[in-house]
Specification:
The protein is mostly helical. Helix content is 64%, strand content 0%. It contains five helices and no strands. Helix 1 packs across helix 2 and helix 2 crosses helix 4 (69-78). GO terms for molecular function: DNA binding; nucleotidyltransferase activity; protein heterodimerization activity.
């Protein structure tokens, strides 16, 4: 317990007070056991370490001797283990490219809607011919 309160021999690097605040933000949590707090902090540290190590080994970080955001983003997108992070670590794109993507999606959506309307018109025509 003395080690959990701080000092030189800390077992976790993350601030326990912040982790407690995050855990208490859940409506299902009424109280937090000190052991649960410690284990959550340690598990989080190990997860972040694993994510960083994997991203470094499989990214361009080795070439530059640095870990970059794009390495993390690429790992979240490509590695099945980390795909749940894809929304949190999206690939960075320029605003101009994003706007072009939105315009293209809008155009594709309009074309798709027009195609559906044409199909409906064809169905009505066929139904009328059969009934005559």
């Amino acid at each position: 317990a003395a080690r959990l309160s701080g000092g030189e021999n800390r077992l976790v690097s993350l601030p326990l007070s912040r982790i407690r605040v995050i855990m208490k933000s859940s409506p299902e949590v009424s109280s937090i056991n000190q052991d649960a707090l410690f284990l959550t902090a340690k598990a989080t540290e190990l997860f972040v370490q694993y994510l960083a190590t994997h991203s470094y080994k499989h990214g361009r970080g080795k070439e530059k001797n640095a870990l970059t955001y794009s390495d993390l983003s690429h790992t979240a997108e490509e590695c099945e283990t980390f795909q749940f992070l894809a929304d949190i670590l999206p690939k960075k794109i320029l605003a101009s490219k994003y706007l072009k993507m939105l315009e293209k999606e809008k155009r594709d959506g309009e074309v798709g809607e027009n195609d559906e309307e044409e199909e409906d018109d064809e169905d009505e025509t066929v139904g009328q011919d059969v009934g005559s």
